[in-house]
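Sequence only, no structure available. Ideas?
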Amino acid sequence: MELNREQKRLLMLHEYKVGTNAADTVRRINEAWGEGTVGKTAVYDHFKDY
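Reply:
I predicted one. C-alpha cells follow.
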C-alpha cells in the first residue's frame, strides 16, 4: 500500500506529537511502511514547521 502526501504528513505529525525526534521518525515510518516512504529532508522540514 502506498501512502499519499496527506497520510505521510499525518504520520509525521503523530510522531512529532508523541515526542519522537526527526531521525527516529524517518526510521520508524520507513520500517513500518517500507524503505523510502519518507525522506530525511521531508521529515526535518515538517518538524521545523511544527
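The chain has three helices and no strands.
Hope that gets you unstuck.
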